[in-house]
C-alpha cells in the first residue's frame, strides 16, 4: 500500500527513533520500497540515540564494529572497538549519504498510537519538545526503533545516607560536561560494561579509581584493533574485506556464546585464567572476577587491550567486592566495616528499561497491554496489526538482528503488496500456548522490567531467538507468510464487507497461500480472539504463564546484578 501524494501528517511507514536501528530501518525501507513514503520521529534534538546520549569518559562499544555496523556500509576505521563519537559519525554519515536525515523530524516524541482496522491505519499522537504541543499523524505501518531504555534517567538504587555525601554523585547517563576529576579520588559503583569502561578511562587522570561491586562480572580482554581485518582491507579493498571480517566475527561471537552455554565450567575456568594472567601476582582473582552465574547468562564485558587490568596493575585502579551499608560524608561504609573514601561517586548502576518507546498502544479502541502480548518472530506482537519493532541481540551485536528483521519486514510489505493486503496481524493458533519471559537474560536491568515486557511462546514463530544462525533461516530464508500471521484488506481499501483473508491454519489447518473470502461472522469470531481486549476480557484471555521446564529454575538461580551496561 502506498500513498499517491505523501503529506506531512500521513505516511505509509512511520519509524519511531533515529538511533542506529531507526536509520537502518529507513535504509532498508527506501531501498526495497522506494515508492513508499516514510518519516522518522525522534524525541530528541539529535540522531544517533545511545551514541549521542552517553557522554561519560571512555564511552565506546563493546562489540566489534564489523558486526555492530550495518551490513550495507563497511566500517572503515582501524579500531574494531570504537568510541561513541566514531559510531555516531558512522550512523550520521549513513543517514546523510542516503537522504535519510531529511526524513527525520526531531523533538517529536510519539506518546500514543491507536490502530483502526476499518482504515488499516495507525493514528499517532506526537508531543513536540519545547512547546509541549500535541499533533497527530497517520500511517499504515508503525515501526518502533525506540531502543530499550528510558532516556530521561538511568537506574540508581536507593542508597542509605546518600544525602550525607559531600561530593558530587553522578549517574553516567547524565554526565556533567564540566566535571573535573583530575587528581580526585573516584568511586565507581557497579561492575557492568559502563563501570569497566569508566574505570580505566578515569584512572588516566584521577588520583585513584575504585570500582565497588556487589557481584563480579565476567570480563574478557580483546584487542581493540582487528589486525586481520586491517590487512584484508589493504589486500581486498573495503567492501570485500568488510564482508569477510563480518562473517568471521559473527561466527566467532556465536561460537564463544555456544561454548559458554554448553561448557559453562570450562568457559569459566578459561576466563578466570586469562584474567589471572593480566592481573598482578597474588591478586585475589576469585574474589573480584569470579561471578556466581555462568558466562553469558549476563552480557560478558569486554575490555579493549585489557585496559582495566592494566590500570589495576599500575595501581591506578582497584576493585572492591562488598555491599554498601550507608553513604557517609566522606564516601561509603561497607558491610565488612571498611570505609571507602572518595571525592566523587559515580553510580554505574544501570538503565531503566522501557519497551516500545513508552508509547501507549491501542487497537480498535482497546488498550494493548504488553505483558498480554506474545512476540511474533521477535518483531511483531500478537493481536497488534501492522506494528513491528526493532529489538536486537543481547548475546552478540544488537544490530545483527535489526538488519535481519528489517529485511524480513520489507519482504512482508512486498508480499502484502503483491496480494493487495493492507493489514497483517499475528495471532497464535493455540490460545493455551504456554508463555515465558521475553528474554532469558539475567542482567539486573532486564530482570527489573521483565513483567512489563511482552512474552514469548514455546514454539515457532512465537520464540524470540538469540541465535543469528537461526534468525538467518527464519527471517532471511523462510517465507514471510505464516499460518499464524493473518492478512486482510480493509474496507477503506476496497474490500467488500466480507473481507479478503488469507487461508490460515487457525481455521483450516492449511498453510496454503490461497486467498479466499471469509464470512463476516467468521471474521468477527476471529477478531474476538485478539488478546488485546477490554481489561475484563483481557484478564480472561490472559496467556497461560506456564514455563517450559528448566527455564524458570535457571532464571531463579541467577541473582540479577545491579550493574547495567
Ligand atoms: C553505553 C552503551 C553501550 C552499548 N554498546 C553496545 C555494543 O557495543 N554492542 C551492542 O550490540 N549493543 C550495545 N549497546 C546497546 C545499544 O543501545 C544498542 O546496541 C543500540 O545502540 C541501540 O540502538 P537503537 O537505535 O535500537 O536504540 P537507541 O540507540 O536507544 O535509539 C533509540 C532512539 O529512539 C528515540 N525514541 C525512543 N522512544 C521514542 C518515542 N516514543 N518517540 C520518538 N523517539 C523515541 C530515542 O530518543 C533514541 O534516539 C550499548 C548500550 C549502551 C547504553
Give a description of the structure.
The chain is an alpha/beta fold. It folds into 3 domains: 11-151 and 353-488, FAD/NAD(P)-binding domain, CATH 3.50.50; 162-223 and 277-347, FAD/NAD(P)-binding domain (3-Layer(bba) Sandwich), CATH 3.50.50.60; 499-564, no CATH class. It is built from 17 helices and 27 strands. Strands 1, 2, 3, 4, 5, 6, 17, 18 and 21 form a 9-stranded mixed sheet that branches. Strand 8, helix 5 and strand 9 form a beta-alpha-beta unit. Helix 1 packs parallel to helix 11 (398-419), helix 5 (193-203) crosses helix 10 and helix 6 (227-236) packs antiparallel against helix 7. The longest helix is centred in the middle third of the chain and has 25 residues, at 238-262.
Keywords:
565 residues, alpha/beta, FAD/NAD(P)-binding domain, 9-stranded mixed sheet, 5-stranded parallel sheet, 17 helices, binds flavin-adenine dinucleotide
Indicate the topology.
Blueprint: E1 10-16, H1 20-32, E2 38-41, H2 50-53, H3 65-68, H4 84-97, E3 104-105, E4 108-116, E5 121-128, E6 134-144, E7 169-170, E8 185-189, H5 193-203, E9 208-213, E10 219-222, H6 227-236, H7 238-262, H8 264-278, H9 285-288, E11 301-304, H10 307-313, E12 317-321, E13 324-327, E14 331-334, E15 339-341, E16 344-347, E17 360-363, E18 366-367, E19 375-376, E20 380-381, E21 387-389, H11 398-419, E22 423-426, E23 436-437, H12 444-447, E24 455-456, H13 468-477, E25 485-488, E26 500-502, H14 505-508, E27 515-517, H15 520-527, H16 535-541, H17 551-557
Parallel strand pairs: 1-2, 1-6, 2-3, 4-17, 6-21, 7-16, 8-9, 8-16, 9-12, 10-11
Antiparallel strand pairs: 4-5, 5-6, 13-14, 14-15, 17-18, 19-20, 22-25, 23-24, 26-27
Helix pairs in contact: 1-11, 5-10, 6-7, 7-8, 11-13
The structure holds flavin-adenine dinucleotide (FAD).
The site of flavin-adenine dinucleotide has 33 residues, from helix 1 and strand 4.
